[in-house]
Amino acid sequence: MSLARDSQDRVVRNVRELLEYEGLRVGAWFVRSLPHRALLPLARVLGNLVYLFDARGRRVSIANLTAALGDDLTPARRRHVARMSYGNFARVMLELFWSPNLTRDNFSEFVEVEMPEMPGGPAVVFCLHFGNFEWLSLIGAWAIEPGPVVMQQFRNSLLTPFFSGLRASSGNDAISQRRAMLKLLKVLKGGGKCGVLTDLTLDPKERAVLIECFGLKTAVTPIVAVLAQRTGAPVVASEALPLPDGRWRLRYLPPVRFEPSVSAPEIVQACWNVLEPSIRAHPELWIWSYKHWRFKPREGGERYPFYANAAKRFDELVRTTVRAGT
Description:
Layout: H1 2-32, H2 39-53, H3 55-69, H4 75-98, E1 111-114, E2 123-127, H5 133-143, E3 148-151, H6 159-167, E4 173-176, H7 180-189, E5 193-197, E6 209-213, E7 216-220, H8 223-231, E8 235-242, E9 248-252, H9 264-281, E10 295-296, E11 309-310, H10 312-323
Parallel strand pairs: 1-9, 2-5, 2-8, 3-4, 10-11
Antiparallel strand pairs: 6-7, 8-9
Helix pairs in contact: 1-4, 2-4, 3-4, 7-8, 8-9
């Protein structure tokens, strides 16, 4: 009976995944057929609908905004920012689906690039899940040079090649998370450039580093520090901000400067500090429905969102970081 039930469950799962893939593929085809100017109003509608029906994500968003920005925002303003954040993410996804319409010759019609200083050799370009982070990577292949894009493995295996194709459509190399660090190091040592997201939270047991985001301690990926320390490559912050005419401004800031002796947490903290002011200025462009603070210290954790949990391993990471003087 158990074998038959397992077989039935696999069939149901396969059918569900196939329907999910086909629905996404048809939706992407429809989005590609639209003029670019139609995407923004469509994103607003979709964002409002998801915000309305996603009770769990809406609660996380409000809790994050309360913890991070506190009295800087009224309750009504928090709800507005949370709803706008959903709309921004919907726009990012729609424009990713629309991106096969972009070419090296026409991308400047949809973005302007601000790049006061970009190293000529290897560089680690980092960003947050802020603004249009997808186009930062995709258009960066033309504005700077192609590079590797680390792809998450979706539970639905059909979706991984679908999104890989979109993110590699400008010439980037979509690589899997498996052995990604080695591949990124190889690119940098060969004189190339790579891009990474630095606001991905980790369990403290996963080689995380401790930093403070909006004055709240959190465990995040150390990837930007590891790449910089092992290769000596400069680190460049980037962000994509919306323009009033429906385009985006892709900003590549001057390299973040470090002393040779700084630790990995100090590097990651310095990178965060460069971009946190942008979130404060434009909070609606960050993904607030993500659980940015999954852990909290056992003492002094009153400010943390409701979903944050106290854990010995997080306290140990705090103590280790304090002992190291960072």
